[in-house]
Amino acid sequence: MSDKDLGGPAFPKWIDGNRPISAKSQDAGMTLLDYFAAACIHSQFDMAVAAHEMDDEIPILETAARGAYALADAMLKERAK
Prior knowledge:
Layout: E1 14-15, E2 19-20, H1 32-54, H2 60-80
Antiparallel strand pairs: 1-2
């Protein structure tokens, strides 16, 4: 398991209405990092497609995913301030 900050669960489930299920639990669901990346992927895909038109060596999907997670990491860092 990575030590990277994943932001915890994006949509935490609650036990007995008192405390959230552990972020390490299989039932915790999507991480906040993944949720942020999903929110960014459309703009990153558009940018990757535009870049691909100029350079056929750029793998579009990998470029978009890398950009989305870079933005998501930045969002988590800003959120922690």
